[in-house]
Design a protein that fits this description.
13% helix
Length: 805
Amino acid sequence: MTIQYHSGVALAKKKGKDIHIVETPVGIGDMLPVIAEGSSVPRVLSKRFADVVNVKDFGAVGDGVTDDTAAFEAASRTSKRVWVPHGKYLVTGHVAGNFYAETGTVEIVGGPTVVRSESPKDYRKEVLFVGKGTLPVFAFVSDRWGTEAKVSVQGLALDEGWNFYVTCAVESKEQNTSDKLFIVLKFNNCFEYVGAACFESDKYVEQIVVGNGKLIYAGSPSELFEHDLSAVTWTNDIHLAETCTKRKLLLNGFDNDFQLYEHAGKFYNSCRSKFAGSQAESVRRDYIFAFDKSALTPAGAVKFDFSDVGWGGAAATATTATRKAYPKRQSFCVTDTEIIFAVGAYWSGSFPDGEGYRRQGIKAFTKKGELKKTLLLDPRKFRAKLQSVGIQAQYVETESVCERDGQVFSLVATGAIDRFVVFREFSDSASAINFSDCKVEEATAKQDPVLYQFGNLPVNPLTGEAMGTLADVLVFMRDTATQELSFTAFSSDFDVTPLGVAQTTTSIRIRSRYGSAYLIDYMTSDKQGAGAAYAVLSASNTVSITPISVRTANLRLMPVKDFSGASQRILFETDTGDVAGAMLVHKASADVLEFGGNTSLANSVSSYSFFASSTGVAGEKVGVGVLKIDHQGLYPYLDYKYSLGLGAKRFSQIYAQTGTIETSDERAKTSIVSPDDSLMRAWGKVGFKVFQFKDAVEKKGADARLHVGVIAQQVIEAFKSEGLDATRYGLLCYDKWDDEYEDVEVVDTPEVVAEDGTVTPAQTHIEHRLVTPAGDRYGIRYEEALALECAYQRWRLAQIEARLS
């Protein structure tokens, strides 16, 4: 018997002894109406399935090998939300669309496609703790700073023992206390209140790190403050934690933003760029830096798109309206795969709806800076939902977010009655609150590629590959309109030979100023190779490097090396082009300016002269020689004309092989007489004292060194008692000076470079600043004082001998 298999669908009906068969062009299921569970109206399955767009309905495979780009593009053109089932999808180009998936089930390779998860689970929050205003810390603050003092909830941290720490700033109307003092509340793993402690900082602290027996925070723009938790007393009366170790942060060109996080052996710190134009009328937290925990050296950085993590709008054109278009970032946390931001500006019932920067929630990005998830809540609906479950929220502000063992926790400030709420995000608990009815849509700005540095090497976010050459970096800057980029490169991983430096670690700063042309500043770690170069990127992505040599009249600046090892030089040339003299920075003495006769230190001029105005007024056409150096030594131009130091500008110490030589030639003196008895009696009343200098005590405390000498004012009084004027004698000195000022150029508006290379010059003004306040000071010439002491001893001895005889 032969069995044949047929595909297709047919309808059969028996009528009498006959069976009637009708073939159908579609499946029978497509034609049958069904009632979905929980609903009441039947619908045909073909229409029912059309409600959900699945990327696999358009040919996506999801095996990580097949190119699924066309399927994603076709699905996105439906203008519907597109479901992405579990799988690994190869996407080779950027696809804009509203794709969503279950968290952690989808991987996109090959491109920066954004996959956002907005399942109902994402909007479920489990209330872990409501921080009531009756906590002892609030009463303590009122007692200590008055009833008008405000406790501002800022940060949330979690240690390895699952103890929670809430950071609170103290804001007093009498003084800006929050700049110097903040309070940390400690709760155990059951969220039972343990106690609180005070900590000091140079600035406002928003986020702390707790773990391994330490409490750590960014206490100044360039330091981390560490407290030993074993020495911290968690009580209700909030004693100040005084033990603190300060460690230097090796940040160049950036200020930390007092938000610190720790993950997987690294510190992460929010930073602001110091580069020109970075603030642009608004608060910008541009970068998340990674630091090695032990050495505190940079280990990577992410620069985020301006409008997605800070205030909205382009940096150069930011306005109040554009800044309010996107949620304000408050703090961040780092996981193995993500950087998550807590976002949302303060909102209460008195504020209008529709201001985007007041939306509350979290936003998650990949470590390449791609937006992965945005879970934003309408602040009015959010507060109403909290109130509906018994949380008496006066206002809402999502202040902080942290993560441990895959669990994400958020901190929301709520106001005077319930000070704050701690949530477990994405909770599966049956008691979790579903906030999906509070969610808001967000018009996400275009995602520009961002730079991610890891291990100090720049990584291209479009490919995930490290850039190994200057050409790679310049191509990236050109394609992403990046105006400025700084990084540190190791020569074993990055080709620095075009700059002409040795095989070493090199700090590189590149600025795009003239279309395809770039300015490169570089400095090796040993400072033996440094300078500037002009780079041009061709259409074929090749780079030509030219060392910068600036010439003006007979002055030429050269940043290249020669056989002497000089890395930078200023050459002074004759009209015929010969080099007559040079100033050099030499590798044998880094950071020391040396002078020579030409490009080599082997040659020299006969002497070096220093001239200045004879009146002290700048611009005088006829100056006078002040100091000269030649084969004879260092000496003043004129005899008995200039002082070494001033009354208000003293040398701290003079080192010499022998004592100073002073004029004692009889031919240079007149009115030569022996000291009279009244002078001897006056000096005999002057006592030698042991003392400490006040400025030394201020620096060294009780360890300041002891000195022996006389007191000038006592000398004046002793001479006066014998009818003598001490100021007539050269041993007493008196100096008086007026206020001294200097003119300082202050930048009001920094230089701005547009994307087309147009430069808007900086706006500056000159400030007349006080350098040295007016004052006066007495002094003693000890060579004359001691000579007088010897004369007094002779005189006294002569009197004793006369009486004995």
